[in-house]
Amino acid sequence: MPGFEVFGEEEKKQINDVLDTGVLFRYEFNEQRNNVFKVLEFEKNFASYCGAGYAQAVTSGTAALKVALMALGVGPGDEVITQGFTFVATWEAILDVGAIPVFTEVDETLNMDPADLKTKITAKTACIIPVHMLGAMARVEEIVAIADEHNIPVLEDTAQAAGGRINGQHLGTFGDCGTFSFDSVKTMTTGEGGMIITNDEKMWRNMSEYQDHGHDHAVNPGGRGGEGRSFIGFNYRMMELQGAIGIAQLAKLDSMIAAQKEHKKQLRLAASAIPGVTFRTLVDEEGDTATFFAFILESKEHCQRVSAVLADEGVGAINFSENSWHFYPSWEHLLDGSTLTASGYPFAEPGGKKRVIYDPKILPQSADIMSRTLVYPVSIKMSSEQLQKMCDALKKAANV
Predict the structure, then answer these.
(1) 41 phi and psi angles, rounded to 5 deg
(2) Which domain CATH number covers 218?
(3) What pairs with residue 177 in β-bridges?
(4) Strands (E), the chain
(5) Which pLDDT value is given to residue 218?
(6) Which of 161, 264, 315, 323: disulfide with 132, CB 3.0–4.6 Å?
(7) Residue 219 binned pLDDT confidence (cut-offs 50, 70, 90)
């Protein structure tokens, strides 16, 4: 990671196709664009790659979450269950549609713990969002089975795991829909951008219209069709330059993952020398995207000693329990209910009545696991010198 490591002539050609038309907008201008519809082509290619019926491109992975939640009918009065280890965008989108995020523990997959999920479901649960964090899969088949028992839809947040699979089936296709991010640090990138995939035609059409101000796309999904509107929407349209880059990057995704797997294999071999080390549980090792390498130490203290050695060697690893973007106890703005609105919404109703209060200590299992876990991002074009430096540091850490 990320995909900009392999930008080349392929991306340039796709971009030049757009610049030659002068049309950056994904819809309309049919005569001027000479049948060049890059976002539409990207959507079709991505759906085909994932084995999904439909794909809807949007401006970001965050927008993908919101558009998907809207298409699922989630709103005020609803609860949406997700996990306490995720990027803030997952729960920001939940709050932004008016629903309340409910957080589960993670297990040693570093993803949603199905056992804890069962305890968090209530009559208000309108959706479950497992997140395939750090490039590897949640126990999504178990999660979908639990959701099905309660007739609750599942939205897979696959922002960090494009190209991941379980027994050959792509992540994002197990639930009702799956969302993806193509931001600047993702394995495949369009700078900014996102995608939603689904096999539900009605849901896709609602997403297609919602992300374009509710414009009626019934006549021609590649255009805007008529000017009727069935419901209000917003603007989350991907533009043609992003779609162009996405076409080129998608064609390289499997080769990018293969390179990451080779680098991760060597890092894991070096880390295996550390006494008491274990590795993140993978539901399907073959289906891992190898975007990150995570290893778990015996205790928080052991983790701190190993981390200090790696930092001293100039190859410091990430401890996500100390990271303010991805782990529940570090989200001070969520825990404090901080917002720009005068009413206190979405944490309070008009008049000041609290809608939700979050306790930083409600996920002890996750806190324990995260305090003992170190993570390396795995790049696509890692130099042999850098890889060797990291491996040597890991071996040195075996002595602390």
Answers:
(1) -65, -40
(2) 3.40.640.10
(3) 155
(4) 54-58, 79-83, 100-104, 125-128, 155-157, 165-166, 169-170, 177-181, 194-198, 278-279, 292-296, 373-377
(5) 66
(6) 161
(7) low
- Please provide residue 76's backbone torsions phi and psi, each rounded to the nearest 5 degrees: -55, 140
Q: In degrees, to the nearest 5, what angle opens at C-alpha 14 toward C-alphas 25 and 68? A: 50
Q: Which residues are catalytic?
A: 186
Report the DSSP pairing between strands 373-377 and 292-296: antiparallel
The pLDDT > 70 percentage for the chain reads: 97
The answer to whether residues 211 and 197 belong to one domain is yes
Task: Give the tokens for residue 100.
Answer: 């309340």
Helix, strand, or coil (residue 192): coil
**What DSSP letter does each residue of 52-75 carry, written as one string?**
-SEEEEES-HHHHHHHHHHHTT--
Other beta carbons within 10 angstroms of residue 387's beta carbon come to 18
Q: How far is 48 from 50, CA to CA, in rounded Å?
A: 5
Tokens 């002595």 sit on residue: 399
Give the total number of structural domains in the chain.
2
Q: Own/partner pairs for 393-397, CB < 8 Å, 24+ apart?
A: 393/309, 393/310, 393/313, 393/314, 393/315, 394/267, 394/270, 394/271, 394/273, 394/274, 394/310, 395/270, 395/273, 396/309, 396/313, 397/274, 397/305, 397/306, 397/309, 397/310
Helical H segments across 176-327, by residue range: 201-210, 240-271, 300-312
Q: pTM of the full predicted structure?
A: 0.96
Out of 251, 275, 303, a domain closes at 251
Q: Render pLDDT for 381-392 as a digit per residue (tens, 0 to 9).
A: 999 999 999 999
* Sheet with strand 292-296: strands edge to edge: 278-279, 292-296, 373-377
The letter for the amino acid at 170 is H
The whole domain housing 352 covers 254-399
- Measured over the CA atoms of residue 267, residue 268, residue 272 and residue 276, the dihedral's sign is positive
Burial (Cβ within 10 Å: 0-12, 13-18, ≥19) of residue 52: buried
Q: What percent of the chain has pLDDT over 90?
A: 92
∠ CA 62-67-70, rounded to 5°: 130
